[in-house]
Amino acid sequence: MRRRALLGGSAMALGAAALGLWPQARSAHAEEAPASLLEAARALAAKPYQPNPVSLSPPFAGLDYDAYRGIRPIAGEAANLPLGDGYEVDLLPPGLFFPDPVTIEMPRAEGFGEIAFSPGLFTFEPRYFGEIPAKSPGAGFSGVRLRHPLNDAQVMDEVMVVQGASYFRAIGQAMVYGLSARAVALGTGGPGPEEFPRFTHLRLHRPVDGRIRMEAVIDSPSLAGHLELEMTPGVDTAMRAALTLLPRREITDVGVAPLTSMYLKGPIRAAVSDDFRPRVHDSDMLYIRNGAGEHLWRPISNPARIQTSAFADDSPVAFGLYQTPRRFDDYEDTEARYHDRPSARVQPTGDWGPGAVMLVEIPTDTEFMDNIVAFWRPDAPLAAGSEHRFDYTLDWTRSAPGAEGAVRIAQSRSGQEHDRPGTRRYVIDFDMPDGLAAEGVTPLISAAGPAQITGAGVFDLPEGRGARVTFLLTPDDGAEAVDLRVTLQGAPGAHPGPVWLHRWTPTEDGEV
What we know:
Helix content is 3%, strand content 41%.
């Protein structure tokens, strides 16, 4: 599934101010709607799953990428619809990767009203479309795009997009879209096919004190569910999430608070892609603050074969996918602006119990496919007919992982040691607080797997830029994977030092 291509929909953005027109509803009466969509999700879970039985019809059927981009919501009809103080919404068309209709409710004077779908709410680029029918049986909106004066009080910027399965993504000030979040993942990284629960119903609430709230009903063969998001845009855009899962069957492979990103290449293994840019990724680091008080830094990679890593924990404090390099020079890409893409941090609210943060790394040869997924998987299966709630915050941020004033990992690099065939050199740079030096610091390096570690050392970087740890890894012949762990004994600072983790795997041609 090509997950990245159109989630942002920025090519369809319209710049007009709201016309102040409330859309007409087709629901009978708003007061008949339940007080919360959670009740609708519970009712749905009590019934057998019913897939969408209707295929798309013209003008939304059989579209390619360019044709889909040629459909644009009309301002005042499906675009720039006012939600309340400081917020507008665009309703997104179906087609291409988004065939399933999503019921959308917006606030009205008497409560909520469902928005009636029609091709007449959109314009269609003539080079891709002929005569547009008045009706399109089986078609419905595919999602929403929220706008807010994020960077300029006079401009309604995009701040959040909800479209495709249960995907959504957001940005803060001076950011561009990058990684995405999902309501829930099923079977991700497992031996069988992945199941993609989808939003079937969205309800947008009026903003209160600058915050906006959205409810969503989730449905799939294995479960129904309800997601409630409360978003506060700003320098960082903050969300409070409440997820309720209602399994139809026992589920052992659930992913809670999943984050989905892209990693093509970087200095941890630059030879993956012959590209003028030194880095191509939306995220380069999985960061975990676990229940034992450790700060785990796991550089992301683009492996030759799919890799799934589990970081066992009990009551995790936080985890997230981070974009750590923040200079244009790190990427040299004027169009993609990878240096301005957000990181996303999940912080559980309450006790999530025992489980594991999972990281799935999927091989890719293109930057247009999301190939990285991180999520929480509880140890205990979710029983059929049960109800499970997970509360958490989700921040879209430019900030670095780790505590302020703590030792942080600045970058990770590796490359073949040319005078020692079968050996790879790793280089890890640490930002040391208050300009402290490497003197008195000892790297502790271990390898879980058939390999030898040699040549370990630590020294200061020039111009007070921190300390560098380097070592050589020589995997045994035929080794399939080696898990590496590096800590600094005697590291300065009042905070726990970082734990650097990485999994070496051979290249596609079997080289180190």
